[in-house]
Amino acid sequence: MASAPHVPLEPPERLVRVLTAWEGEAGREWLAGLPERLQEYLERWELTPERVQQPGGNISMVVLVRQADGTPAALKLGLVTAETAEEHAALAHWDGLGAVRLLRADAERGVLLLERLHGDISLRSLPDAKAMLEAAGVLRRLWVPAAGHPFTSVAEHTARLAGKLRERAERPWAADARPLVDEALELRDRLLADPPEPVLLHGDFHHGNVLAADRLPWLAIDPKPLVGDPGYDLAWLVRDRLDTLAAAPAARSAARRRLGKLAEALDVDRDRLRDWSFFRAVEAGMWSLSVGDREGGELLLEFASWL
Q1: Which tens digits make up the pLDDT trace of 101-143?
Q2: 176, 230, 240, 245: which is deepest, by most CB within 10 A?
Q3: The whole model's pTM is what?
Q4: DSSP states of the chain
């Protein structure tokens, strides 16, 4: 087969902006190597490129391709981090059950060949109530028994988050948030003291990470897999579309109703879900404040206070 044609590589603007802001020099180095890396895998895996998926992810670029037999696929080139290093293993374990199917992988370099989904259509395209219903159906497929699997536990992962949270709470700008941080850390310790039966979790489950598909109506993408309490996974979904939720009349009551409905739909203990939602909102809010996103950080902390 002739070598794959050269494709001018133009990383999505969001990818360039986020990697530069979050990863600094390491991000710039990774971006600089993208053109060569793309061409290497187009040739190695006999792929014909069509276009770069826009707007793309925060730390990955997806190129829509055709395989040698003409089958459509998606070539994902991502920055390997502690959170993304086991993405390929989770996708291989699910083998298409609720998640995009993995076709080939060079996990060490963060390069995955995936089945083609409808990248422009996520659950965000649906009304909130319908999106939540579909999301619950996807999670039911993903939460499989985790015994014997080598993924990071929720306890290990949140220990790192808790350490960063304590550091940020000592910054001068964090003074007003310290009571929320103290409560979040206390809740985490209580939750981990009496955990339910662990399952394999997506780790970053929200409407934007569930895309329309042909094989099934909706499939999850971009897992940051963990093993542990289902409530931890569901907590991210509780605060999805937070801007819209915050603008609703009686936002506090609306947030609590959503939490209750999701807990009931997926048979997750409501109190545990509330506590994990609180912890994850405070942790994310403090992170946002630490990188200069004051509006986003304050909204997340306000959401935590609603719970």
Answers
A1: 999 999 999 999 999 999 999 999 999 999 999 999 999 999 9
A2: 230
A3: 0.92
A4: -PPPPP------HHHHHHHHHHHTHHHHHHHHTHHHHHHHHHHHTT-EEEEE-SS--SSEEEEEEE-TTS-EEEEEEE---TTTTTHHHHHHHHTTSSBPPEEEEEGGGTEEEEE--EEEEEGGGS-HHHHHHHHHHHHHHH--B-TT--PPBHHHHHHHHHHHHHHHHTSGGGGGGHHHHHHHHHHHHHHHHS----EEE-SS-SGGGEEE-SSSSEEE-----EEE-HHHHHHHHHTTTHHHHHHSTTHHHHHHHHHHHHHHHTT--HHHHHHHHHHHHHHHHHHHHHTT-HHHHHHHHHHHHH-
